[in-house]
Amino acid sequence: MVALLLALGSSLAYGCADFLGGLGARKAHVLRTVMIAAPASLAVELVLWPVLGASFSAGGLGWGAASGVASAAAFALLYRTLAIGPMNVLSPVTALVSAALPVGVGLLRGEHLTTVGLVGLPLALVAVVLVSAGHGAGSARPSRTALLLACGAGAAIALQLVFLDRAPSDSGVAPLIIGRAVSSAVILAAAGLMHRKLGSERPAYAMAAAAGVLDSVANLLFLLAARNGDLTVVAVITALYPAGTVLLARCVLAERIHRGQLAGLGAAAVAVGLLALT
Fold this sequence. Notes:
Helix content: over 70%
Order of helices and strands: HHHHHHHHHHH
Largest sheet: none
C-alpha cells in the first residue's frame, strides 16, 4: 500500500510537471524551458541530499548516469514524436510502451501478482492508453517513422524508470543527483549547439522552474515506491501520469475531457483499487 501511494504521488507529480512544462513551452522554444527546469530539478535533489542521504557507490553512479542518458533520450524522442504527430495516436503508444516494458522486466525478475492483480494490471494498461488519447484517436494514421519514434520515446522513459529501480537501495538520492546532472549536461550541450534556432523569446521562468521541481519530486517518489514495492505495479501506476495533465487542463484551461479519457479515468480508479488489494 505504501508503494502504491508513492507511485500515485509520482504519477500526479509527473502529470503536473508535464502540464506546466507544456504551458511554458508555448511561450518560447522548448529547450529554453528545459534549460530552466533541469537546473531547478537538480537544485531540489541537492537540497534533499543532507535530508535523505546519498551514497555515491559504483552502482549508484552507474545506474544514475544511465537513467540520465535515458532521460535525455526520452526528451528528444518524445518531442520529435509529438512534432510529427498525430499526437492523439502517438501519445498513447508512448505511454503504453513506457508502462509495458518495466512490467516485462519485473516479471522476468520473478515478481508475481495475485489473481486480483492479474485483472488490475491489464486494466491499468488500458487506462493508460485511454487517458492519454485525445479526441478522435484513430482518425489519422501516423507514419512508420512516427510510430518508431513513439516506441523509442516510450522505451527511453521505461529505461529511465528501470535504471532508477536497479540502483542500490542504500544509495539514497545519489542516482537522482547523478541522473539529473547527466541529463542537464546533455540538454545544455544540445542548447549550445542549437542556439541559433532557439529564437529570442523568453520562457515562462516560474512555470519552467515549477515543472522542474515537480519532475524532481516525481522521480523521488518513484524511486521510493520502487524500493518499497514491485516494479510491475509501480511502473504502471506511474504511467498514469497523463491523468494529472488531463485534469489540470480541465480545471485551468477549461479543456474538455472526452468520453474515452473519462472512461480511462474510471478504469484507472478501478485498477488502482484492485492493485491495492494485492
